[in-house]
Amino acid sequence: MAFVNLSSKSWGSSPDITITPAYEMQRSGANMQYRIRVTAGTVTGQSYFGYPIYLKVYLQSSLKDTHTLKSASPSQWSSNLVYTSDWITISNKTSGTTSLSLNIYSGSGSSRNSTYSYSLPIEPAASVLGTISSFTFGNAINIPITKYNSGFYDVLTISVGGTTIKTINDITNGYDVSFTTTELNNIYAKLPSATKGTVTFKLTTKTSSSGSTVGTSTKTATGTIPSSVKPTISGITLAEAVSGLASKFGAYIQNKSKITGTVNASAGSGSSISAYKTTINGSSYTSKTFTTGVLKTSGSNTISTTVTDKRGRTATYSTTFSVLAYSKPSISTFKVERCNADGTLNDEGINFKVTVKSSITALNNKNDGSYVFQYKLSSGDTWTTLGNSLSGYSINTSWVVTNVALNIDNVYDFKLTVKDYFESVLKNYNVAESFTLMNFGADGHSMAIGGVATETDTLDVKMAKTYLSDYTFMGGERRSDNEKNLIFQSSGNGEYNHNCKVYGGNGTSSTSIGMWDSVNAHLIYRYLCDVEEFHFSADMEILRGGKPILIEALFNNGENSGNFRMNNGFCIQWGKVSITPTAANTTYNMAVKFPTAYSIKPNVFIIGQSSAPQNFSYAIGQGGTDVDAFDIYINRTTASATSFHWVAIGKV
Asked: Are residues 47 and 154 in the same domain?
């Protein structure tokens, strides 16, 4: 506040000096603080010879300060003499008035000595908040208050982030504040990304509940959101993602079903979900909704999810779901044999006996199942469907067909197709013509052994086994330079189609023998006689126990280098380097780096190449070999280039 003037006094006469006191005040808790100002007016017309002017300041009858307003000279002054004190504290002053006494005197030789007394007001004492300890939201908060006037009315306002959360009227010292659920949620809403925050406590002291404000006191404290305020997961909604499967089977099907899922989660109060991680079917998904790939594992499957809110707090949830095991239809046995009408097997029979063993996955007896039995002449293209009584999911039966007669001179193809809701599988069977030890074709250029000759210009051996002599020549012994082929083919109607040939190279090729995959149109292997090398296809791996035996083999004849590396880490590397010493009779070294670093130091061998070996010496450096390089040292009588061959053996 600004200085407030008190009544002026006339100090002495001839000359009359006007004394004007003033004060300003402020409160500090239970204490009052004052600054006192004393002004002595000017003396210009008359003189005040040879005397000083002294001042003593008393508050509450206690001397607080002594000051010299003027020394013995000058005797006149045109500007006021002004004294201003520092702040003077009067302890525990909460009511009444404060007495002020000013003693102004000149000292020895002067009779001027006057004391002026005044009553100074006080400011009302507002209540003061004490220190509020850090706390956890939801627990009671003790509020320490120092109250200086029991007649005053105190109001506590609690705010977070500038928003008022709670107001408590007529609060008293030691009051325990508790928040309602609504108030707690309002607090958490102000802290969406934090686990703790600053809470402001403001105490307002008023003269009465509706009176004027006396003063305020403010404190802050840190409130922590309890660990229980975190995300919750009520569940995961799962549904079939593949159209038609849910209505058909009412269950998830191995290798066919996909799942679409939704994580039902809520963040801790006032926050929001910032991350999802759901693990199912061997994969992880990072959004609220997801769709899996086809389900790989039958039986009980686990799905687990973790959600994280913006406060970094997490919740986890897991549950299980069942998947029905599924395998595509299988035909383990399909056989058609010539027989008599009573089912007695007969190579010359015109009836035939069918034997079938197959299975379809039942899928809770909701899977489809059909069996189609067909035949045709091997030389024909049109299939005829034969009726059958096959039904159910597991078939292991045989029956005799008498309503279709098989010509004893013809070869027939039969096929069985088994189909369920998802897939179908077929199996073929060939029924030969009736047995004859030797038969000549009608064209006069064909012959069959163990059956009827049905093709032209062909020797057809139909016996179960064929034995060849120790010397069997494809295309005749040295008869031509044409390529000779031994071909292996399947019918093309089975699950896998095979068409490979082993061939002998023609006279213009260095390939002596090879194997070719006609289905995939690439080489399998070949042997080159001119360089005596055995080559495998770059598209093929040689495996042992499902793992490659040889990981890498590289030969560079032009640079005399290469490597040979196996899957157990065993590795041989070799190469050639040339070293030219900088001067004769001087030891010179060169670092040689391995193309592939070893995991441990390998064994290294070097051989120098020279027509005058007596003129030089060499060695591997004293530091030995490292996992990725070694040093060669040389000293020779001339500064000539010297070649070195090196071999390293170890584990990579």
From this structure: no
Same-domain check for residues 560 and 619 = yes
Angstrom CA distances, 419 to 243, 331, 357, 369, 414, stand at 20, 11, 14, 6, 17
Q: How much of the chain is helix, strand and coil, in % rounded to 5?
A: 5, 50, 45
Bond preceding residue 613 cis, omega within 30 of 0: no
Query: Strands of 351-359's sheet, edge to edge?
Result: 330-339, 351-359, 394-401
For residues 646 and 575, is the Cβ–Cβ distance under 8 A?
A: yes
- Look at residue 550 in the predicted model and tell me its pLDDT: 62
Alpha carbons 552 and 563: distance in angstroms, whole number: 7
* Residue 429, pLDDT above cutoff 90: yes
Q: If pLDDT is split at 50, 70 and 90, which confidence band does 435 have?
A: low
Q: Indicate if 101 and 36 belong to the same structural domain.
A: yes
Q: Is the pTM of this model over 0.70?
A: no
Distance CA 487, CA 489 (A): 6
Backbone CA torsion sign across 336, 340, 345, 349: negative
Q: Cα separation of 43 and 359, whole Å?
A: 131
Question: pLDDT digit string (tens) for 244-291?
Answer: 999 999 999 999 999 999 999 999 999 999 999 999 999 999 999 999
Cis peptide before 74 (omega within 30 of 0): yes
Amino acid (1-letter code) at residue 322:
S
Structure tokens at 447: 């012959």
Residue 634's domain comprises: 553-651
Domain C-terminal end among 224, 255, 278? 224
Gap between the Cα atoms of 471 and 112, Å rounded: 156
pLDDT reading at 535 higher than 80: no
Report d(CA 620, CA 647) in Å as an integer: 12
Q: What is the dihedral of CA 394, 399, 405, 409, to 10 degrees?
A: 80
Range 9-17 average pLDDT? 91
More confidently predicted of 300 and 502: 300
Is residue 441 a part of any domain in this protein?
no
Q: Tell me the three state secondary structure of residue 615.
A: helix
Coil vs helix vs strand at 246: helix
For the cut 60, the answer to whether the pLDDT of residue 622 exceeds it is: no
Residues 314 and 347 in one domain: no
CATH number at 192 reads: 2.60.40.3580
Q: Over the stretch 70-112, which tens digit does the pLDDT of each residue have?
A: 998 899 999 999 999 999 999 988 888 999 999 999 987 788 9
**Residue range 550-602, pLDDT digits in tens:** 666 666 666 678 888 887 888 999 999 988 888 888 888 888 999 889 999 99
Last residue in a domain, options 281, 304, 324: 324
CATH of the domain at 350: 2.60.40.10
Would residue 453 count as lying in a domain?
no
Token pair 């005749």: residue: 476
Q: What distance in Å separates the CA atoms of residue 625 and residue 571, rounded to the nearest whole number?
A: 16
Domain count along the chain: 6
Q: What are phi and psi of 47, to 5 degrees?
A: -125, 150
470 half-sphere exposure, CB direction, 13 A CA radius:
0
Give the other-Cβ count within 10 Å of 152's Cβ. Answer: 18
| Per-residue CA distances from 501 to 463, 471, 485, 505, 571 (Å) | 22, 20, 6, 12, 34
Block residue for tokens 């549950």:
319
Rounded-to-integer distance, Cα 564 and Cα 649, Å: 10
Same domain? 509 vs 579:
no
Position 264, amino acid: N
Per DSSP, the three-state class of 137 is coil
**93, 29 in Cβ contact below 8 A?**
no
Residues 348 and 424 in one domain: yes
CATH of the domain at 21: 2.60.40
